[in-house]
Design goal:
648 residues, five-stranded antiparallel beta sheet
Length: 648
C-alpha cells in the first residue's frame, strides 16, 4: 500500500514558467517542505524526473525501502513527481529512488535539498531556511556599499583553511566560530567585503567546493543553514558585504548528484562536445533546456534571497561561453553561425543577470570570472551586453605578476606590461584579482613570485600592492597574501598566522591595512574608478629608470592623488611635471620602516615653475628604493608638508 497522499504546491502558472525557463523561485516549490494536510503535519516532496518509470522517497523513516512511498507524476506532462508523507519532520534523512526506463534504481539526493549529510551516502535532510535576521540596517543601505562609485575591496577566503582550532587542527570550525574570529579581523584590515569560495554542498574536499552536488544546500562541514546565516548576518551588522562564489558552469559525476539524474542526460548536455568538461572531468549544464535554466536562475535567486548575499562571483565563465574551451580541433562543434561562442550559455547568462538585477536592483552585484576578451560582459543586456556588474581583470593580474618576476636589469624590456592595462581598463567594469588560483599547484605564494633577496621580495610585494590599490577598479586579495604567506595555499590546514611574529610579515599586513584605509577614504581612488576622467598618466615610458607616475582624480577638481612607483632597488631624485598651482603632501610610502621598509623618506626636494614635458611646473622628489609613494594634492600652498598617518 502506498503511504503517499496527493498534494501540490505547483499552480498551472508555476508549471508553465518552469517549462518556459522563466520560473525563478523554484526553491519555494521543489524539494522537501514542511506542510499540513487535513490537519496533519508532514512533508511535501517534489522532484523533476521526466523520464523515470517510478520515483519513491526512501529514508531513515522507511528503512530505505523504495516500494512504500511512491510519488505521483503530475498529469500535465511536466515530468514533476510529488506527494505528501505524514508524520515526517525536520531532520528526516531521505533520498529519491528513481527507476529508470531501463529498470535501474538510482538513489539520488534531492537537487533542492537545504542540507546534506557529510558521508558517502550523502542523504538529504528535511530542513528549513527560517532565520530571524538582524541586518535590516545593512540591507536598506547596501546599495551604497555595492555601488560602482564606492570603494570595493574584497577579502577572498576558503572557510575550511582560513583558521582552525590550534588544539584540534584536523577539525573544521563552525560558521559561528568563524564569525567570532573573522569579523574583528576584517574590520581591523578595513576590507569592505568578504568573498567565500563555494559554500554550497560538495563531496570532494580537494575540489575546494567548485564541484557542487547540493546547489541549494549550505555545506554541513561548518554547520547548519542557520549557522551560515548567522555568519552573514553578523558580517552585515558590522558593515561588511558578502559575495558568494557560484558555479553554474559544471557539476561532478557523483552518483548522488545531478549526473544521469533520471537515467538520462537531464541536467547535462547529451553531446559530450558540449556536455563534458575534459579538464575537470565534470559535466556541463544544458543551457538550452528551459527547465535547467529555471533550476540555475532560481539557485542564484535563492542565495541572494534566503541568505542575503550581496553578490555572486560566477565561476568559469570563459568555459561557459566558448565551445572550444580546452578542446582541440575536431573536439567541438561550431554554433549555427560557424563561431565558437556557446550561444545558449550566453543567453542563459543574459537571462540570469536580467533576472537578479530586476529582483534586487543595484543592491547586489554579479561578477564574472572570465579570462578572454569576450566583449561587453559588463554592459547592460538591453544595450547588447551580457549584463554583469563587474569582470575579473585577468590580463592585468597575469601581466603584473609576470613583470614582478623579472630581474631588475630586465624590467626595462617588460616596462609596458604595467602600462598595457590602461589601453583597455575602461572597456569593462573591472575587479583586480590576486586570487587563490595564483598560489596553488606549484605556482608559488605571492611573496615567492617576487624577484630578489628577502628584503627585495617584500619591497616588491609592497610596491605591487600600492600599484593594485591605486589602479582603477575594485580589488580582490586572497587570504594570507595580506601578510605574505610563504607556502602555497593548502586547503587541508590553517594559514600560517605565526608568521605575523616576524616584522616583515607584520609590516606587510600593516601596509595592506593602510592601503585599504586610503582606498576607502580618499575619494580620488574610487569615485571615478570606472570612468576615464579618473586616471591620467604623468610618466608611462621611463623604462630606463623603471619609474611609473600617474594621477587618480575624484569628482572635485582639486581631489587628486599622485602615485609614483620606483621599481628599481636604488634611491633616486626624480623630476615630475605637475600643473601650475598644485602642491603636494606625501600620504603613504611603502618603504616606511613601519611596513618593513628601509625607512628612506620620500622628501619633496624642490618645486619649480618650469615647462617640463607638457606641464608648467615640476617637483623633484627623493624616491625610496623599490617603493610606491602616494601624494595628495593639497589646497593651501602654505600648508606645511608632512606625512599623514592614519591614527587608530
Amino acid at each position: 500500500m502506498n503511504s503517499v497522499k496527493t498534494y501540490t504546491l505547483f499552480t498551472d502558472h508555476d508549471v508553465y514558467l518552469f517549462k518556459e525557463g522563466r520560473h525563478y523561485k523554484l526553491y519555494g516549490k521543489f524539494g522537501a517542505h514542511s506542510v499540513e494536510k487535513d490537519g496533519i503535519q508532514g512533508v511535501y516532496f517534489s522532484v523533476w524526473a521526466p523520464h523515470a518509470k517510478k520515483v519513491s522517497v526512501i529514508g531513515n523513516f522507511n528503512n530505505w525501502n523504495h516500494k512504500d512511498h511512491i510519488l505521483f507524476p503530475r498529469w500535465d506532462g511536466s515530468g514533476i513527481w510529488e506527494g505528501f508523507i505524514e508524520g515526517l519532520t525536520w531532520g528526516t534523512l531521505y533520498k529519491y529512488a528513481i527507476e529508470t526506463a531501463r529498470g535501474e534504481i538510482l538513489e539520488k539526493s534531492d537537487p533542492y535539498a537545504l542540507s546534506w549529510e557529510q558521508n558517502i551516502q550523502a542523504a538529504s535532510l528535511v530542513s528549513t531556511t527560517w532565520y530571524e535576521w538582524n541586518d535590516a540596517g545593512w540591507m536598506e543601505k547596501r546599495w551604497k556599499k555595492n555601488s560602482l562609485k564606492a570603494p570595493l575591496s574584497v577579502y577572498e577566503m576558503h572557510l575550511g583553511s582560513w583558521i582552525r582550532d590550534k588544539d584540534a587542527p584536523e577539525r573544521f570550525l563552525n560558521y559561528r566560530d568563524i564569525a567570532q574570529k573573522l569579523i574583528p579581523y576584517i574590520k581591523e584590515m578595513e576590507f569592505t567585503h568578504v568573498e567565500f569560495m563555494p559554500v554550497m554542498e560538495y563531496p570532494y574536499d580537494p575540489s575546494w567546493g567548485y564541484q557542487i552536488t547540493g546547489f541549494y544546500a549550505a555545506t554541513s562541514r561548518f554547520g547548519s543553514p542557520q549557522d551560515l546565516m548567522f555568519l552573514i548576518d553578523e558580517l552585515h551588522q558590522n558593515d561588511i558585504g558578502v559575495i558568494l562564489d557560484w558555479v553554474p558552469s559544471h557539476f561532478p559525476g557523483d552518483a548522488n548528484g545531478l549526473h544521469r539524474f533520471d537515467g538520462t542526460h537531464l541536467y547535462e548536455h547529451e553531446d559530450p562536445r558540449k556536455g563534458f568538461h575534459p579538464d575537470w572531468k565534470s559535466y556541463i549544464f544544458n543551457y538550452g533546456r528551459n527547465e535547467v535554466k529555471s533550476f540555475l536562475i532560481s539557485n542564484a535567486m535563492f542565495w541572494l534571497d534566503r541568505y542575503h548575499a550581496d553578490g555572486l562571483r560566477v565561476d568559469a565563465v570563459t568555459s561557459m561561453l566558448h565551445l572550444d574551451y580546452s578542446r582541440n580541433e575536431g573536439e567541438w562543434e561550431p554554433n549555427i553561425y560557424g563561431g565558437n561562442v556557446n550561444l545558449e550559455a550566453k543567453t542563459f547568462l543574459e537571462e540570469f543577470n536580467t533576472a537578479v538585477y530586476k529582483e534586487f536592483g543595484d543592491h547586489i552585484i554579479t561578477i564574472a570570472e572570465e579570462s578572454s576578451d569576450f566583449p561587453m560582459l559588463t554592459k547592460p543586456v538591453h544595450d547588447g551586453g551580457v549584463g554583469f556588474g563587474m569582470k575579473w581583470m585577468m590580463g592585468w593580474m597575469h601581466d603584473t605578476l609576470d613583470y614582478f618576476k623579472e630581474d631588475f636589469n630586465n624590467r626595462k624590456f617588460h616596462h609596458h606590461k604595467l602600462t598595457f592595462a590602461s589601453m583597455y581598463m575602461y572597456n569593462e567594469n573591472y575587479m583586480m584579482p590576486l586570487s587563490h588560483d595564483e598560489v596553488v599547484h606549484g605556482k608559488a605564494s605571492l611573496i615567492y613570485k617576487m624577484i630578489g633577496d628577502e628584503w627585495q621580495k617584500f619591497a616588491n610585494l609592497r610596491t605591487l600592492y600600492v600599484y593594485m590599490f591605486t589602479h582603477p577598479g575594485a580589488k580582490l586579495l586572497f587570504m594570507g597574501d595580506e601578510f605574505g604567506q610563504t607556502s602555497e595555499w593548502n586547503f587541508t590546514r590553517s594559514l600560517d598566522w605565526h608568521l605575523l611574529e616576524y616584522p616583515v610579515h607584520k609590516g606587510l599586513q600593516t601596509l595592506v591595512k593602510e592601503l585599504n584605509h586610503l582606498y576607502r577614504t580618499e575619494s580620488a581612488l574610487y569615485e571615478n574608478q570606472f570612468e576615464k576622467a579618473g586616471f591620467e598618466w604623468v610618466e608611462a615610458d621611463d623604462l630606463e629608470n623603471s619609474i611609473y607616475v600617474y594621477v587618480r582624480k575624484g569628482k572635485k577638481r582639486d581631489d587628486v592623488c599622485m602615485v609614483i612607483l620606483n621599481l628599481a632597488p636604488r634611491v633616486l631624485d626624480y623630476k615630475i611635471g605637475t600643473h601650475t598651482g598644485t602642491h603636494w603632501d606625501v600620504v603613504l610610502n611603502s618603504d616606511d620602516m613601519e611596513y618593513g621598509g628601509s625607512g628612506v623618506n620620500p622628501e619633496i626636494l624642490e618645486e619649480k615653475y618650469e615647462e617640463w614635458r607638457g606641464y608648467q611646473k615640476t617637483i623633484t622628489i627623493k624616491l625610496p628604493p623599490l617603493a610606491g609613494v602616494i601624494l595628495k594634492q593639497k589646497k593651501d600652498k602654505k600648508y606645511k608638508l608632512h606625512r599623514i598617518k592614519h591614527k587608530r
